[in-house]
Amino acid sequence: MELIRIENLFKTYFLGEVDVPVLKGISLKIDQGEMVALMGASGSGKSTLMNILGLLDRPTSGKLWLNGQEVSRLSADRRALVRNRNIGFVFQSFNLLSRTTAVDNVRMPLSYSINGWSNNEERGRAKDLLQRVGLETRFDHIPSQLSGGQQQRVAIARALVNHPPILLADEPTGNLDSVTSVEILEMFRRLNREQGITVILVTHDLNVAKYADRVIFIRDGLIAKEGSEAGQPVNSDGAAGSNGNGSGGGNGHSYAAFGNGHSAGARSENGPSRSAIGSELVPRGDLPSIAVAPAAFASSFTGGSAPLEAVAVAEPTVVVPPSIAPASSAPKPAPQPVALQPALRSVRFRLFPRTFGTALRAIWRNMFRSALTALGIIIGIASVIAMMGIGQGSSNSMKKTMASMGANMLLVMPGTATSGGVSFGSGSILTLTPQDGDAIVRECPAVTAQAPIVRARCQVVYGSRNWVPMNIYGTTADFLMIRDWEGMDKGAAFTDRDVRNSAAVCLLGQTVANSLFGSENPVGKDVRMQNVTFRVVGVLSRKGANMVGMDQDDLVLAPWTTIKYRVSGSQLSNVNQSASSGATANSTDTGQQVNSLDALYPNTSTPLYPTASAIEAADRPQPVRFANVDQVMCQAASTEAIPRAIEQITEVLHERHHIQAGQPEDFSIRDMTETNQALLSLTSQMSVLLLAVALISLVVGGVGIMNIMLVSVTERTREIGLRMAVGARPSDILRQFITEAVILCLAGGVVGIGIGIGFSLFVRGKWHWPSEISVPAIVASVVVSVSVGLIFGFYPAWKASRLDPIEALRYE
């Protein structure tokens, strides 16, 4: 049955401006089960013809049929599928992957098969074939550990692993010694005779051609001569001839010049049948025996030691391998034509896990280069993680520092007095009272707490030690809640009852406590301020410096009533204790204002009570305690509620202070949110800057990935050609190289994440830098790693997939 047919085949290579015709109109037919030799001198076109028959190359013109189907114009993907399922290649230079074991070399075509073999099935099948070609002890040896004959046997096992009906061998014995050459050729002949495989040998050696049933001599791109009958030798010019005595007779020897293998050879009267081997005639019975028995080869295609019976092929291909019959003269069954339209989408889906495994093996074979390739990504990702950790740690540290100054804090300050065009500054008039603070909490839903503050400046004395704190505040217990300072290092805070009773109790900051008491516990001890004895009831927890570097622990807290009336010496005064000037709202002489409580709010245009003279006021001092405070500290319900809280506080104070529309306000409200936002914005900008620097490292690493992958494509050009020859489609090559790039980037990303986290922890422990592990940065790093692999790995992968199989195989 006709298996291969070509008609008027031309092939011309275009080398710049020069056209080099190689095949010049060849037409021939090859039947199923034939063993054919394409013979000719170097440059005659025999290898080009074999490449076209194997769908590695395309003809310039002409047509090629396989089993009655025209295949010369198939797409690259479908040509690859036909090669993988129907054609096995045995190359002169073996074309084994140098750093790959014999098993992995043999299983390579299965990686691109549509059968869906599992990893264990692939390895099992490869080992079975290696065992049947006599390499059962060489499974895990790489090509450099094998002899030339053993490498060729690995190549033959690779060509047969998919049970192809066609075997193409290009100068299969060119690099072998004569004894090994005989073993390989006998192996081909047994496969042809016992398995029905169509074998096409390409050679320039007449002794190799004698093993074929049919010799086609090619000269200058044309078929010169052809011998088609066994026993008819071909002379040097390609003409079929005789050995002088035909099939034997007289006292000569009968020769089987072609070694067709149908029988042991006809014997003459006086001598045995012989075959021409090498440069001398060796009797057929003296041929070196090959390491594999015929039955063993037969059983390798039936899945074990089963007898040689008909076997059907499960997958649709161009040609179904013939039924296997015992070595006899029984005719070989003809193949059955099948369709050539496999579902490529399902093929791609099934091949993806294999592509991943193939990519992993390729990376493992070049571990040192792969590590260097991933180094740029490792550095880039480590930089991103470390920079993001340090940046986020700094930002959170800044937030904690701002929170330590008071979360969502608002400061209500008294107004400014002016006299003769001279302003006395904020707080120079008496406009805020403790009752204002109570009204703010009561009537402003957006305010959750308030604390009046009275400031003082004096020495704190304990025994023979003294210290002048930076701040002495008279306030209430809510001050600690507003400042987020409720945690006490020792003792407990004073209460609202202490405030009402003007109790002489106080709280010390860490700096004051250490300065006055050292290692001694201050709780329960007495200190003096302005000759007033205070009992220390607690020591505040450490707060540290604020945003401007001021020590927040250099502080003494006491009830505001005690500080106001006993430390500052105020009784019934309308003068702010913290003001350096004695200016009043109406700019009158301060010497005339003696202990008067007639005007609650001096800036109001209409007094609440009739104005008394200075003498009357001095004669009738009021026992009612009415005093101003230096400021009122308020806490908004949330950061978002601060603008609403400001509006509500303003409305309440306007009503309480009788401020009419258009009149100047006698208070001011300071919002700490703007300062916080400015600092947070600065921190964010620094984090973005650090991230940008780290991303530059990632880009550099990505360029390194692309560069190394391009070098890898050039270095592995022959490997790419070999993979295409055994059935890899361009999309498989594209997917493999992209997968390799993604795996390298992903592995580099994982290592970089570990290094980045380790560096962040190191700087935090060694130099106490504010550094935190950023989970979003880790997730982003993984995404970026994969993206870099896809982006920078695509072009090298695309370039590899565009290589022509035959050109890639010829690459040096």
Structural features:
812 residues, alpha+beta, ten-stranded mixed beta sheet, six-stranded mixed beta sheet, 22 helices, 26 strands, rod-shaped
Short summary of the structure?
The chain has 812 residues and is of the alpha+beta class. Helix 10 crosses helix 20 (730-766), helix 18 packs across helix 20 and helix 18 (673-715) runs parallel beside helix 21.
**DSSP helical segment count:** 22
* Average pLDDT for all residues: 75
Alpha carbon gap, first and last residue: 40 Å
Uncertain spans: 229-350, 571-602
Strand content: 15-25%
User: What gyration radius follows from the Cα positions, in whole Å?
Assistant: 49 Å
Fraction of helical residues:
25-40%
Which structural class do the helices and strands define?
Answer: alpha+beta
User: How many β strands by DSSP?
Assistant: 26
**Biggest sheet character:** 10 strands, mixed
